[in-house]
UniProtKB/TrEMBL annotation:
<dbReference type="InterPro" id="IPR036188">
    <property type="entry name" value="FAD/NAD-bd_sf"/>
</dbReference>
<dbReference type="GO" id="GO:0071949">
    <property type="term" value="F:FAD binding"/>
</dbReference>
<keyword id="KW-0274">FAD</keyword>
<keyword id="KW-0560">Oxidoreductase</keyword>
<protein>
    <submittedName>
        <fullName>Salicylate hydroxylase</fullName>
    </submittedName>
</protein>
<keyword id="KW-0285">Flavoprotein</keyword>
<dbReference type="InterPro" id="IPR002938">
    <property type="entry name" value="FAD-bd"/>
</dbReference>
<dbReference type="InterPro" id="IPR050493">
    <property type="entry name" value="FAD-dep_Monooxygenase_BioMet"/>
</dbReference>
<comment type="similarity">
    <text>Belongs to the paxM FAD-dependent monooxygenase family.</text>
</comment>
<dbReference type="GO" id="GO:0004497">
    <property type="term" value="F:monooxygenase activity"/>
</dbReference>
<feature type="domain" description="FAD-binding">
    <location>
        <begin position="13"/>
        <end position="368"/>
    </location>
</feature>
<dbReference type="Pfam" id="PF01494">
    <property type="entry name" value="FAD_binding_3"/>
</dbReference>
<keyword id="KW-0503">Monooxygenase</keyword>
Length: 450
C-alpha cells in the first residue's frame, strides 16, 4: 500500500486546540505531513510547576521519526523499574531495562515536563526541519466550534476557520463536549500529592542519591492498597519527581487544582507513618507540593465528528499508573501524521478521521483500563506484569494483563494499512494483526491473531 499514488492529497489548514505535550506533538506530526498548523493555547505557559513525564519506546520512536532533538529535553534514560518494600525500602520486584533499546529500538526517557514541552514547542515552531513552522497563539480558549463550517470561536472573541480541528485541550476538554461526548466519570478512591526534591539538596542532607539508579522506583503497591510512592528522576538526574498516593478518605483534593497554593509538608507526610525512613526524609525536604486530582473515566464511544478529532487526555483520560499518558497522546499525534500524509490521505477529512478513531480508540482504552487496575496492584503495571516469579505476584486476569511486548512491538503503520485496505479495495496480506506481528506469543500466554 505504500506505493499508492498520492492523487487527491491536499494541504489542510489545521487548528489544534491545546498547546500541551499532545498539542505540540500533533503540530509536529501534521507539519511533517505537509499541512499548515496553528496551535491555540488557553493559557500563556507562565508559572507552571514541573513534574516528570514518562516516554517509553512507543513514544520515543516518534520523537526520533519527527526529528526532535531529544537531548534538549535533558532526559534521564531509565535502566530499571524497582518496586520496594513499603517499610524497609528493600527491592521486592525489579524489571531490568538494560537491553531495552536493543529489544525495542529506542530508549525509555524520563523528562521534566517543562523541558519536554519546550523541546516539542521549539520543534513545532522553528524554521528548521521539514514542513511549514506551526503558529502559536496563547490566551485562546476554545468556546465553540461550528461543526459544519469548521469555524472555532474563542473566549476572547477571535474566530478561525480550519479544515481539520484537533481537540488536545486536556481532561477538562471543551472540544469533547462540542462533539457530543459527556464523560461518565467518578472521583478515584485514591488521592495524590506531587512534590519535587532537588537531588543536590538530598545529597547535602546525607540522604541516598536515588538519581544514581536511573530508575522509576515504587514503594508499596503490592498489598492491594491505595498507598504508593512513585519516584521518577528527570532533568538529567538533578530533580526527583515524587507522586504520593493514598486513600481519598485520608485527604480529598478533587476540588483543588494543580495551580493552587503549595500544600504544607506536614500534609504530604501525614499519610505515611510507617514509610521507609529514607524516602520519607526525601519528602520532608520536598518543594512545590501540589494536589493532582484523579478521576476515573469510562471509555468514550468515539474520538471524532465531522472535521474534529480528540487527542490525548481529551479523548481517553487515564489514571497515571501505567506511565503511558504522554505516550498515548504522542501515538495519537503520530496516527494523525501518518493518516494525513501524502501516502494515505485522499482529501476526505471526515473519512480519514474515522480510520483514526478505529486505530486509536481500542489501543488507548485498553491502556486506560489497565492503568485503573495498576492503581492498587503494581503487578498489573507494564514491566512488573512480566515478573511472575516473585512471591507477591498476582493479577486480576493473566490473559488480559498489559505487557511491555504489546506496547513496544506495536507497528502503527501496519495497523493503519490494515484498517485502510478495505476502503482502497485491497486485501491486507502482511503478517500483522492490529499492529502486532501475527503469531507473536505474549508473556500473558496470548498468541497474536488467535
Amino acid at each position: 500500500m505504500g506505493s499508492i499514488d498520492p492523487y487527491g492529497w491536499r494541504q489542510l489548514s489545521v487548528g489544534v486546540c491545546g498547546g500541551g505535550i499532545g498539542g505540540m506533538s500533533t503540530a509536529i506530526a501534521l507539519r511533517r505531513a505537509g499541512h499548515d498548523v496553528t496551535i491555540y493555547e488557553r493559557h500563556d505557559f507562565a508559572g507552571e510547576v514541573g513534574a516528570s513525564v514518562s516516554c517509553a519506546a512507543n513514544g520515543t520512536r516518534w520523537l526520533h521519526e519527527w526529528g526532535v532533538d531529544v537531548s534538549k529535553g535533558d532526559p534521564v534514560v531509565l535502566k530499571k523499574l524497582i518496586n520496594r518494600d513499603w517499610k524497609t525500602g528493600e527491592p521486592v520486584s525489579v524489571y531490568d531495562l538494560e537491553d531495552y533499546e536493543k529489544r525495542w529500538g529506542y530508549v525509555y526517557n524520563m523528562f521534566h515536563r517543562q523541558h519536554m514541552h519546550s523541546m516539542l514547542k521549539n520543534t513545532a515552531t522553528q524554521e528548521e526541519g521539514e514542513g511549514t513552522p506551526a503558529k502559536l497563539f496563547v490566551n485562546h480558549a476554545c468556546k465553540s466550534i461550528d461543526l459544519e463550517q469548521g469555524i472555532v470561536t474563542f473566549d476572547n472573541g477571535v474566530t478561525a476557520k480550519h479544515d481539520l480541528i484537533i481537540g488536545a485541550d486536556g481532561i477538562g476538554s471543551v472540544v469533547r463536549t462540542i462533539i457530543g461526548i459527556h464523560p461518565a466519570k467518578r472521583a478515584s478512591e485514591q488521592s495524590c500529592l506531587h512534590a519535587n526534591v532537588m537531588t543536590d539538596k538530598a545529597v547535602a542532607a546525607g540522604l541516598v542519591d536515588y538519581s544514581q539508579n536511573a530508575a522509576l522506583e515504587y514503594w508499596g503497591g503490592q498489598e492491594g492498597k491505595w498507598d504508593k510512592i512513585v519516584l521518577s528522576p528527570c532533568n538529567g538526574g538533578k530533580l526527583l519527581s515524587y507522586y504520593c498516593f493514598f486513600p481519598r478518605a485520608v485527604g480529598d483534593y478533587n476540588n483543588q487544582s494543580w495551580g493552587a497554593e503549595d500544600r504544607p509538608i506536614e500534609e504530604l507526610l501525614a499519610p505515611y507513618p510507617e514509610l521507609d525512613a529514607q524516602v520519607k526524609a526525601h519528602l520532608a525536604i520536598g518543594i512545590e507540593v501540589k494536589p493532582w486530582r484523579l478521576w476515573v473515566h469510562d471509555a468514550y464511544p468515539y474520538l471524532n465528528r465531522n472535521m474534529v478529532a480528540l487527542l490525548g487526555d481529551a479523548g481517553h483520560p487515564m489514571m497515571p499508573h501505567q506511565s503511558q499518558g504522554a505516550c498515548m497522546a504522542i501515538e495519537d499525534a503520530a496516527a494523525l501524521g501518518i493518516l494525513f500524509n501524502k501516502t494515505y490521505f485522499r482529501g476526505n477529512v471526515a473519512q480519514t478521521l474515522s480510520i483514526y478513531n478505529t486505530v486509536r480508540l481500542p489501543r488507548a482504552t485498553r491502556v486506560q483500563s489497565a492503568a485503573a487496575k495498576a492503581a492498587y496492584n503494581i503487578n498489573e503495571r507494564i514491566g512488573f506484569s512480566n515478573n511472575k516469579n516473585i512471591a507477591t505476584y498476582k493479577v486480576e486476569d493473566e490473559k488480559a494483563k498489559l505487557t511491555i511486548e504489546e506496547m513496544n512491538a506495536y507497528d502503527m503503520y501496519m495497523d493503519i494499512e490494515e484498517q485502510l485496505a478495505p476502503s482502497e479495495g485491497q486485501r491486507f496480506t502482511k503478517k500483522f494483526w492490529k499492529g502486532l506481528p501475527l503469531g507473536m506469543v505474549l508473556p500473558n500466554g496470548v498468541t497474536v491473531g488467535e
